[in-house]
């Protein structure tokens, strides 16, 4: 089996395990045992526990971009697109991966082995998807607007994790959408 296939198989196994059982403070050895491999194999393919977590988050981020693109195909307005995306991101089954996102970001900020590419792919892929969606919807959205939206979503997701409350951050996000639409109308 080629290395990339073995890496992807291990990544899929660990991601499925994390989705079903959470991550807690599992060591690389614990994760390896849980999916029937060795910590050495995980180290070989991902460089470290932080590298493995970064790969899981990168995969989840890619899935979320695909989901956003799918929502855009049926949404009737940008506000519906954003509201549906937020609803998906705040589902109980997705929040462990959101928590993992912030954990990996912290590791990457500190230069942890295996996270080197994480920061490079943090925002640019979202800008690309937003540009494609905006073109299909015949919207003219500046990168700065998209970046602001990304920052608001990430900040409010942080608030959800910190407080356990989804209601207040959802209300804040809805308010952000109203303000964004008002700004676009005035322009």
Question: What descriptive keywords fit this protein?
Answer:
single chain; 187 residues; mainly alpha
Descriptive notes:
- With 187 residues, the protein is an all-alpha fold.
- Helix content is 76%, strand content 0%.
- The protein has helices at residues 3-21, 28-35, 39-46, 49-74, 78-89, 95-109, 124-136, 143-163, 167-186.
- Helix 1 crosses helix 2 (28-35) and helix 8 runs antiparallel to helix 9.
- The longest helix is centred in the first third of the chain and has 26 residues, at 49-74.
- 22% of the residues are buried.
- The model has no long low-confidence stretch (mean pLDDT 90).
* Mass-distribution shape: elongated
Characterize the largest beta sheet: strand count, sense, and whether it forms a barrel. none
Mean pLDDT: 90
Number of strands: 0
Can you summarize this structure?
The chain has 187 residues and is mostly helical. Helices cover 76% and strands 0% of the residues.
Topology summary:
Elements: H1 3-21, H2 28-35, H3 39-46, H4 49-74, H5 78-89, H6 95-109, H7 124-136, H8 143-163, H9 167-186
Helix pairs in contact: 1-2, 2-3, 3-4, 4-5, 4-6, 4-7, 5-9, 7-8, 8-9
């Amino acid at each position: 089996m080629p290395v990339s296939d073995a890496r992807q198989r291990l990544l899929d196994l660990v991601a499925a395990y994390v989705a079903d059982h959470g991550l807690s403070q599992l060591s690389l050895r614990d994760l390896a045992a849980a999916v029937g491999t060795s910590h050495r194999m995980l180290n070989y393919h991902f460089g470290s526990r932080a590298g493995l977590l970064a790969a899981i988050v990168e995969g989840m981020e890619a899935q979320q971009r695909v989901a956003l693109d799918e929502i855009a195909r049926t949404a009737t307005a940008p506000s519906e697109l954003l509201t549906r995306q937020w609803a998906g991101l705040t589902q109980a089954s997705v929040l462990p991966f959101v928590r993992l996102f912030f954990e990996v970001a912290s590791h990457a900020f500190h230069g942890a082995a295996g996270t080197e590419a994480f920061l490079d792919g943090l925002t640019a892929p979202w800008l690309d998807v937003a540009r494609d969606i905006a073109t299909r919807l015949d919207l003219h959205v500046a990168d700065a607007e998209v970046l602001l939206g990304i920052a608001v979503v990430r900040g409010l997701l942080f608030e959800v994790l910190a407080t356990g409350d989804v209601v207040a951050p959802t209300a804040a996000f809805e308010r952000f959408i109203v303000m964004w639409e008002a700004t676009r109308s005035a322009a």
